[in-house]
Amino acid sequence: MTTSIRRVKTSDLELKDRLVSIQRVTKVTKGGRTFSFSAIVVVGNEDGIVGHGLGKAKEVTTAIAKGIEDAKKNLIKVPIYRGTIPHEQLAKYGGASVFIKPASGGTGVKAGGAMRAVLESVGIKDVLAKSKGSSNPHNLVKATFRALMELRDASLVAEHRGISMDKVFNG
Questions:
Q1: Which residues contact 9 (CB under 8 A, 6 or more apart)?
Q2: Which of 12, 37, 127, 150 shows its CA 20 to 30 Å from the CA of 97?
Q3: Model pTM?
């Protein structure tokens, strides 16, 4: 199955950022240890547009700022149907495997750490999610993005099949 990446322009968007993870990394040199920081950031407008980025710097605030700038360059559009996703989806990235499933109204976002940040940034209000395998935040964020990119709404299905919207639902 081929996925179409739905890229979005950053102009005129009110994006909110969420820090998923921050790591202190060490480089051992002849002169001793050099510390720096790595930050994974998710940005979204809570209305179907989301992006993720990685920033690295000597200071935490600079790493986060770089992560936000990187995230703004990787925005995608996600189909949302009545506050949830159109269908269930399984995706894998590296050792992380994620499963997201639509939920009825009032359920809330049932997801852990890195997945929760991504799903809330998209604007999904009701969803059930499960992560299996690695709990590495880098891979979890990327696996969640892969699952969200593979989602298809009814109009995309109709276009792909070359039929009208009525025939998608009525056979």
A1: none
A2: 37
A3: 0.85
